[in-house]
Amino acid sequence: MTPTMRAVRISRYGPAAEVLEMVNVPVPVPKPDEILVRSRATAINPVDCTARSGYGREVFRALWGPLPLILGRDVSGTVAAVGEAVTEFSPGDEVYAAPHIGCYAEYVVVKAAHAARKPRNLNHHEAASLPFVALTTWTALVEHAGLSPDTAAGKRIIIPRAAGGVGSFAVQLMKAWGAHVIALCGSRNVELVRSLGADEVIDYNSTDFTRAVRDCDVALDTIGKPSDFESMTGMRPNAGSAEDFDEKLMSVLKVDAGAVYVTICSPKLVLADRYGPEEGARRAEETFRARAAAQAAKGRRYHWSFCTPSGAALEEVARLVESGAIRPVVDRIFPLAEMVAAHEYCESGRAQGKIVIDIGG
Predict the structure, then answer these.
(1) What is the pTM assigned to this prediction?
(2) DSSP label at 63?
(3) CA dihedral sign, ordered 356, 37, 321, 72
(4) Which residues contact 145 (CB under 8 A, 6 or more apart)?
(5) Per the domain annotation, does 316 fall within a domain?
(6) Residue 85 and residue 35: Cα distance in Å, rounded?
(7) pLDDT tens digit sequence for 248-280
(8) Does 58 lie in the same domain as 42?
């Protein structure tokens, strides 16, 4: 193992072509509870583009520290070294994980508790496409909505942007657990989403889903309010002409029946950037309380959800993948040296599933 590694980092915020840079930096040293992973692949997530462009910088600075930063939330590779307190992994083990940051690099440190053995039937490119979207979905639907193989069966679940990374995983997870899945997507993605097992696939560019759908038990919002989404990503949500998509999504939930709305696109980042960390946090709390109270009055639960790293959850995901219940959806693979093109492709909104980065080696 060499003392330095290739990595792609940012030293300032801005467009991909202006701020993403390939550098040689020291290989990180694992702490007692960490493992060092020789990465074979990582993946691009919209949150990477969001962070790179500068949105959410106040929240991300508190979470990740100051610039320069090596971004990236997915890794699949081989354990190169383990911390002195680690007993569950050994050098040579093939693992995958979604640490908080640092995956655009040849070596990544991961808390042992956040890693799991890679699904045996996947290569590293396929495995790297799963951790962040799997855990984003898991946090939202399992931890917040309370779904499980025992409680999901028969539930009506509505999932917008069903051809994206989170959406395509969520469709498959809910079908694996016996739910009735209603998936929303654009025209060109209908066949892909249908192939993932969705019971109903609605093209939201040509159909007002609020006229076709009712009595849902759970809504997984991957879009949020258009103003929130566009501020965070720089892209307009592909959800038809809805003025307030989240309100339309809530309108198809059951009333006074314990239905659950979970969004992964809260305005927390936007508010922190606009008003500063303290005032932004206060306004976010006010916004959350108001929205939650409005839904509670209709007998529903309301949640903002953020990805929580978990090796235990990734072990469950690996079992589902190995059983054939879930398959990765990989749109395109770029080499590490073409990270700029990968980010630009992500921001185009054209990807079906995940964009994967080959680390090489």
Answers:
(1) 0.94
(2) H
(3) negative
(4) 218, 220, 260, 262, 301, 303
(5) no
(6) 10
(7) 999 999 999 999 999 999 899 889 989 999 999
(8) yes
Tokens representing 149?
């193989």
Residues 92 and 225 in one domain: no
Chain position carrying tokens 């855990």: 135
- Asked if 342 and 254 sit in the same domain, the reply is no
Ordered alpha helix ranges (H), the chain: 16-19, 46-53, 57-64, 124-128, 131-138, 165-176, 190-195, 209-212, 226-233, 245-250, 268-275, 277-296, 311-323, 339-348
Same domain? For 282 and 159 the reply is: yes
Distance CA 323, CA 325 (A): 6
Cα of 79 vs its chain's centroid, Å: 23
Same domain for 279 and 298? yes
Show the domain range for 120: 4-130+328-358
The type of residue at 85 is A
> 3-class SS at 74?
coil
How does pLDDT run across 163-203, given as a tens digit for each residue? 999 999 999 999 999 999 999 999 999 999 999 999 999 99
Residue 361 burial (CB < 10 Å; 0-12/13-18/19+)?
exposed
- Domain assignment present for residue 322? The answer is no
